[in-house]
Amino acid sequence: MPIKSAIPPPPADSTAINPPPARAAWIVAVAVLLVSLVATYSAWHTANRQLQVFQQAEFDFAVRQSVRRIEQRMSIYQQVQRSTQAYLLGSMNVDAGDFRLFVQSLRLDENFPGIQGVALVKLLEASQVDAHVSGMQATHPGYRVHPAGPRPMYSSITHIEPLTGLNLRAPGFDMLSEPNRRAAMERARDTGQAAASGKVRLIQEDGKGE
């Protein structure tokens, strides 16, 4: 007859069902940490996105304000151009003294800050330069068209006010000799509207072309 064992089976491992308290606490801590990290990242991402939107809105507003101020300033400066144009329409022969009085009446420092001077230029063909220089030297000794060099057309500064300080360098400068100035002048000629040039260095500032 088979003999039944009286030895009881080993007890089931209770740790497989109920982990020890220390291990359970560790699992809970890790879970809480992960949830906290996810929540923190989500909050940071949302806040960062809101900050970017706010900064972009501030930047766009600042750009619009800057553009508006530039447009307003350019509109003010165009008043000087229109006033000078009206002056020329009424004066076929520009007298230096009359032009000085006209520019003084504009009160540039008070009404148009930033304008260093108001100038008139004369468009010349190459064949007209020598006669033009001779005529100008009768009242402006030392006048010459510069920079030197043959060109098909010239646009020499004949008058500039106030004729003081650095502006003394300007008479005779050929505006068409510099690409940015030439492009703006040609655009103004073709459209009949005021045209802004690209970035240039004033002849008054460095004396180039003398």
Describe the structure in your own words:
The structure is a single chain. The chain has two domains: 20-90; 94-206, Beta-Lactamase (2-Layer Sandwich). It is mainly alpha-helical. It is built from seven helices and two strands, in the order ααααβαβαα. The longest helix is centred in the first third of the chain and has 69 residues, at 21-89. The radius of gyration is 40 Å and the shape is elongated. It has a two-stranded antiparallel ribbon. 54% of the residues lie in helices and 8% in strands.
Write the layout of secondary structure elements.
Elements: H1 14-17, H2 21-89, H3 96-106, H4 108-111, E1 118-125, H5 129-137, E2 153-161, H6 179-191, H7 203-206
Antiparallel strand pairs: 1-2
Subcellular location: Membrane
InterPro entries: CHASE_dom, CHASE_sf
GO molecular function: catalytic activity
Features:
single chain, 210 residues, mainly alpha, Beta-Lactamase, 2 domains, two-stranded antiparallel ribbon, 7 helices, 2 strands, 54% helix, 8% strand, elongated
Summarize this structure briefly.
This protein has 210 residues and is mainly alpha-helical.
Shape: elongated
Binned, the helix content reads 40-55%
Side by side, the strands of the main sheet go 1-2
Counting H and I runs of at least 4 residues, what is the number of helices? 7
Kindly give the count of domains: 2
User: Measured on Cα atoms, how large is the radius of gyration?
Assistant: 40 Å
CATH topology of the largest domain: Beta-Lactamase
Most strands sheet = 2 strands, antiparallel
Protein name: CHASE domain-containing protein
Domain CHASE: 152-210
Region (Disordered): 190-210
Keywords: Membrane, Transmembrane, Transmembrane helix
